[in-house]
Design brief:
- The protein has 81 residues and is mainly alpha-helical.
- It has one domain.
- 63% of the residues lie in helices and 0% in strands.
- It is extended, with a radius of gyration of 17 Å.
């Protein structure tokens, strides 16, 4: 079975690029490996998490999201009261 891959480019400011370089050096990973893992993790998240990470919510919506996520954690037994 053939593995299909796509190579993509990203745009970073210089400070973020420097921090990514430090992270890669510290972890002994390439930039491609780090970014691939991040994207793979991100696409597996539910829509609420994706929206929160992309910071496309208002403060009010973020507050509601935080409450919803807290409830989910409590239902799964992972939340502290």
């Amino acid at each position: 079975m053939t593995s299909h891959r796509a190579i993509m480019r990203i745009q970073l400011d210089s400070a973020t690029k420097d921090e990514l370089d430090e992270l890669c050096e510290k972890r002994g990973m390439t930039q491609v490996a780090v970014m691939s893992r991040l994207v793979n993790w991100f696409i597996k998240q539910d829509d609420l998490i994706k929206t929160a990470v992309l910071a496309s919510l208002s403060e009010e919506s973020l507050s509601r999201l935080a409450k919803q996520l807290h409830k989910r954690l409590e239902l799964r037994g992972g939340g502290a009261k």
